[in-house]
Amino acid sequence: MELLRLITTYVFAALLSTSADAISPILIVPGVEGSQLYKKNSPCRNLFGICPWKGAWLGAEACISISSVLKDLTLVYDSARGSFQNQPGLAIKASGFGDTCKVEYLVANPIETSCSLQLHVGEYFHTLVEHFTALGYKRGQTIRSAPYDWRLSPAHLQATGYYSNVKALIEQMYKDGGNKKVTLVAHSMGGPVTLYFLNNVVTQAWKDTYVNAFVTLAGAWSGGSVAVKAEISGDVLDALSSATVRELCDYPDDIELRFRSASRTYPSAALLLPKPSVWGNKVLVTTPIRTYTANDYQALFNDMGYPQGFNIYSGIAAINAGFPPPNVPTYCFYGTEVATPESFVYGSGFPDSAPSQVIKGDGDGTVNRRSAEVCLKWKTQQQQPFGSSAFPGVDHVKMVKDNNVLRAVDRVVLN
Questions:
Q1: Which residue, 33, 69, 218, 260, shows the most beta carbons closer than 10 Å to its own?
Q2: Pick from 406, 274, 413: which is nearest to 344 by CA?
Q3: What are the pLDDT digits (tens) for 247-282?
């Protein structure tokens, strides 16, 4: 298999070296927790007026004092306006817009630095970026990324100017690449984030001019059951649970509850809850009192003792409603046949104890199959080409590393 991979890479590289037209520039849009976040005091209170950006997610401080980091990352919700702000006196930003280094690895440097000094810890998109640089792509030129504050929903990202920056970056990549259309490669929540951009920010004429294709890897179109557990009793998701991070950090036993206190304030957490239109009356949660489906979120949040959660959910429920097609050439790739949490049974400790039973179904270990396959309906809803492939046994994180997945992406970007 390794020999076959090397031969394939050599052949593609040879093709690229003889035909510059073969390269479609690539823009990576990462998933939830997949962008490095940095923080600084605002306004700066340093005696010399110099306040550097410090690594907040996922930084070294998370190993020393996870509670302090989560407090900094907790949003302040204004229910009257439906808006979210950082903690008073603190600025938070996603680092590395336009580069790739900050999405190649999850662990942030203690102080924000250039890519040349980036820590190589907690691999994320590194394998994919290396794969394409071997085929002739160049970091920061023909392969770039658009990291974002993953605590926010697409609508809130739009209000920050994120999508204006994405639009400008794509136009610049198109121009710098000799008027070659750009391929958007999105992972996990990056799928819904990019879908919102294509359907709410740019026109069809703009898409026809600048977008070669939309490639989605493990798209969390209709959220996932694991997001329900995150709201109830907490979940550390993929970043904190990675083997690399577990080796570096000795987290307390109640890490999931601590994470819950922060993640409940994120509109992105509500965005990733299973959608009633896809999940219907599928039981997601069972407690000693009753069962809950995606149609019962108001009752669930009330019974959790967190009614504000339903207000946050209601504020983002219309985002990507109905899952309209992106109306660009689209290729939907997702993992299957990996045991994936589907329903949670809680005992008398609900909601402050872990579920006593986790019922699993099909998916990639994080995104349930029914959510990942929402995209399949676009085949008959748009005129532009559509393709899809399921990758049995490939889990959520490996969807950006697996050789078979990378070769599938090759076939899209190599005209």
A1: 218
A2: 274
A3: 556 566 677 888 899 999 999 999 999 999 999 999
> With contact defined as beta carbons under 8 Å apart, do 38 and 55 qualify?
yes
Bridge partners of 217, per DSSP, are 187, 333
Strand partners for 191: none
Which residues are annotated as catalytic?
188, 364, 396
Closest CA to 132 of 9, 268, 41: 9
Residues 6+ apart with CB under 8 A from 267: 75, 84, 151, 152, 153, 155, 156, 312, 315, 316
pLDDT, average across residues 45-74: 78
The sheet carrying 357-361 orders its strands as 291-292, 285-286, 340-345, 357-361
- Whether residue 149 contacts residue 37, with contact meaning beta carbons closer than 8 Å, is answered with yes
The pLDDT of residue 169 is above 80? yes
Chain-centre distance for alpha carbon 377:
22
CA distance 6 to 2: 6
CA quadruple 154, 155, 156, 162: dihedral, nearest 10: 60
How many residues appear in the chain?
415
By CB atoms closer than 10 A (0-12, 13-18, 19+), residue 399 is buried
Distance separating alpha carbons of residues 295 and 279, to the nearest angstrom: 9
pLDDT tens-digit series, residues 108-146: 888 888 888 787 888 899 999 999 999 999 999 999 999
Question: Which residue is listed with tokens 């394409």?
Answer: 132
Q: Which of 146, 241, 239 lies closest to 196, judged by CA? A: 146
Give dist(CA 72, CA 186) in Å, integer.
27
Q: Which two tokens stand for residue 267?
A: 């509109």
**Nearest residue to 84 (alpha-carbon basis) of 167, 39, 149:** 149
Look-up of token digits 């019922």? 359
Q: What are the structure tokens assigned to 224, written together?
A: 């996932």
